[in-house]
Design brief:
Largest sheet: 5 strands, parallel
């Protein structure tokens, strides 16, 4: 610790607690537009869950409330440097005193929440951390009577802020993430590790001592769960698997009462490099998608929604991302699926089926596959068999899925390691609770200058579908490339793929008559 650090910390302890608490109480003032939810809690939740556009949303609110700070706010949102953040926060604090408006103090602390980095010897920012920590804690106490879902998100945001000094003291790599984002990832990992430990203890208590029972039933947990594995389903199977009662279980017996491996997170630099070669126009999307995996031992990330025009390559990107991460991808076509397609169908029905996340786990023999909900904005809105949107809202809450009541299996299963990716052309028709649960990113359309990279990627894809070596497809001739450039002009990858198929079929016909 440097002399400057000592000076800062000494100043903090010299600060009157009553003054600090008073400032915190002002900043934690309830937001009248949010039915009693403090503004700082709202932005802490958005920042901790890495919601895209949080800073711009805050900037718009500041400009609306204090138009005289428009230039300074625009400078902050354009540069997003630490100095710009601190200057804007101080300006808001000053105005809050001059104009006696508590909302300005609250906005100042919102700036600190979304901007402050993990404390370090270069910038310990201890005073700011202590103040914001008190603000968040006081704000959390004001949520009495609010929905459990909101309160749990607030608890996570407060904990995320609290663990930031731990990241500094242990010199953990945060790859430039803000303090609350980096802290949130650590909190998730700590919770997941605790839950795995608890489940293993429960399984050991419930397991019969001899590994079986008098009726020849399979045990609830016949083996220990090794590190890096999860027992997804504890289910006592009565009698033979061939009986009518166990017909639903028969195809999935290998995934019941057995440890299922978690796929370890690969070198993200290699994954990023491969994706950039195939999707050179989507560099920001690639970084956004992979950011959720930084520091994680296994492939688990927050729900991700790719929003863009039809044919831009959203589904193809999701598939290639999963292939490079070595995790299975289970696709659900939202245009043809209702709620039961994802949630599962009750075992009492003749059409009984487990939930889609469990089917993916059983199919790929991985505890952390990815569920792709394609064209989610085109899902049916009728609720005869349950809306797909409502089921997704439940599945995207990790707390709900640690012990998810699977109707097809008739028992609770742990599908909390399953990740979700959705594609949509627009989020306008989607319910707000669903949109809030996804990290959203705009998927750009390919440019005409990306033609060569796209053709090379599509060539390998077509060769794989035809089950031949990609080397059989010679590079495009100058004439073929000119025709593609003239007729494609950028935009839809789907259209480019059809045009490339035409080129290859023309080659095939020509070779026949030569």
């Amino acid at each position: 610790m440097t002399e400057d650090d000592d000076t800062i910390i000494s100043d903090i302890f010299a600060t009157c607690d009553e003054v600090m608490d008073g400032a915190a109480l002002q900043s934690a003032h309830e937001d009248p537009d949010m039915d009693g939810v403090p503004k700082v809690i709202r932005y802490a939740i958005l920042a901790a869950t890495e919601q895209i556009g949080t800073a711009r949303r805050l900037a718009s609110e500041i400009i609306e409330v204090v138009p005289e700070l428009s230039d300074q706010t625009n400078a902050w949102i354009s540069n997003r440097t630490l100095q710009h953040s601190l200057d804007l926060a101080i300006a808001l604090d000053t105005l809050s005193v001059e104009k006696d408006r508590t909302v300005l103090r609250s906005l100042a602390d919102c700036i600190r929440i979304v901007s402050l980095p993990v404390p370090s010897s270069k910038y310990p920012c201890a005073h700011a951390y202590m103040r914001v920590g008190r603000v968040l804690n006081l704000s959390r106490e004001m949520l009495e009577g609010q929905p459990d879902d909101l309160r749990s998100k607030a608890e996570r945001a407060v904990l995320a802020w609290a663990v930031a000094p731990i990241l500094c003291s242990q010199r953990m790599r945060t790859n430039g993430a803000s303090a609350i984002v980096a802290g949130g990832r650590i909190v998730d990992e700590m919770i997941e590790a605790k839950v795995r430990t608890s489940l293993q203890k429960v399984a050991q208590v419930e397991a019969p001592s001899n590994g079986s029972n008098a009726q020849g039933q399979l045990p609830l947990s016949g083996v220990d769960c090794p590190p890096g594995h999860v027992i997804v389903c504890h289910r006592r199977i009565e009698g033979s698997l061939m009986s009518r009662a166990n017909e639903v279980l028969r195809p999935h017996a290998h995934a019941i009462n057995a440890p299922i491996p978690l796929v370890a997170c690969p070198d993200l630099r290699i994954v990023r490099s491969a994706l950039l070669q195939e999707f050179p126009y989507a560099a920001e999307v690639i970084d956004f998608a992979l950011a959720g995996l930084v520091g994680r031992p296994t492939v688990v990330f927050e729900p991700l929604m790719l929003v863009g025009v039809p044919g831009g390559g959203k589904s193809r990107f999701a598939r290639r991302l999963c292939e490079l991460l070595s995790v299975g991808l289970w696709r659900v076509d939202a245009t043809q699926a209702d709620g039961s397609a994802c949630a599962g169908t009750d075992k009492r029905w003749s059409t009984a089926s487990p939930s889609a996340p469990f089917l993916a786990i059983s199919r790929f023999q991985q505890a952390n596959p990815v569920l792709l909900i394609d064209e989610v904005d085109k899902a049916a809105t009728r609720s005869d068999y349950g809306r797909l949107w409502d089921v997704m809202i439940s599945l995207c809450e990790r707390e709900n899925t640690r012990s998810y009541p699977d109707p097809g299996l008739g028992v609770e299963v742990d599908i909390s390691h399953v990740s979700y990716v959705a594609t949509a052309n627009s989020t306008a028709v989607l319910p707000a609770p669903l949109v809030d649960r996804f990290r959203q990113v705009e998927f750009p359309s390919p440019r005409i200058e990306d033609l060569d990279d796209l053709v090379d990627s599509l060539r390998r894809e077509i060769a794989q579908e035809r089950r031949i070596d990609a080397g059989f497809f010679l590079p495009l001739s100058a004439m073929e490339r000119h025709l593609l450039l003239r007729n494609w002009g950028g935009g839809s990858v789907r259209r480019l793929r059809r045009m490339l198929d035409v080129v290859y079929r023309a080659r095939d016909r020509q070779s026949v008559f030569q």
